């Protein structure tokens, strides 16, 4: 009977350690530009403070207008002291800008509205070329992430984009170099 008691104890401890680690999922991220007026609620007209149904974090707390990422997270446990890393690449840039926003994520499903506001976002008409949102633990461990499709693509070198090429500097390949266009070429592997 003694070996079974030890085995059961080990299994209980193993499951307990797995259960204490918060499992976090990103359900969805909706990026969009928002004006400061879109945050005004009726209560503010009567002297109340700003309130939103989501957890609200901004890169510059005194500015409301900016580009926001509405992210819905689902967490098995509360994650106090979490860090939301919002990374964006703007049109005409090859370098990502990163903003770290502190958030206390509660247990369950919760929306977080993370804004790049004030001087952290250039203009209402600018949309990011690519973006990535990562939730990090207080210790810096990545718990969850979601990114735009373009974030996953490798960068295109400037010389491959065609911006620096002219027709004279890049002659067309000869038909002999392309076996598919040359009927006299021997088939591959002979």
List keywords for this structure.
single chain; 190 residues; mainly beta; Immunoglobulin-like; four-stranded mixed β-sheet; four-stranded antiparallel β-sheet; disordered C terminus
Task: Report on this structure.
The chain is mainly beta and 190 residues long. The chain has a domain at 22-153: Sandwich (Immunoglobulin-like), CATH 2.60.40. The protein is built from two helices and eight strands; from the N terminus they run αβαβββββββ. Strands 1-3-6-2 form a four-stranded mixed sheet, with no helix packed on it. A four-stranded antiparallel sheet has the order 5-4-7-8, with no helix packed on it. The chain starts with a helix and ends in a 43-residue tail after the last strand.
Strand tally is: 8
Question: What is the helix fraction of residues, given as a range?
Answer: 10-25%
- CATH class categorisation of the domain at 22-153: Mainly Beta
Major beta sheet, strand line-up: 1-3-6-2
Radius of gyration: 26 Å
Q: What is the overall pLDDT average?
A: 79
Helix-strand makeup class: mainly beta
The CATH topology of the domain at 22-153 is Immunoglobulin-like
Beta-strand fraction estimate: 35-45%
Shape: flat
Oligomer: single chain
Strand count, sense and barrel status of the largest sheet are:
4 strands, mixed
Number of helices: 2
Give the SSE layout.
Blueprint: H1 2-20, E1 24-34, H2 42-45, E2 55-58, E3 66-75, E4 79-89, E5 97-105, E6 108-117, E7 130-136, E8 142-147
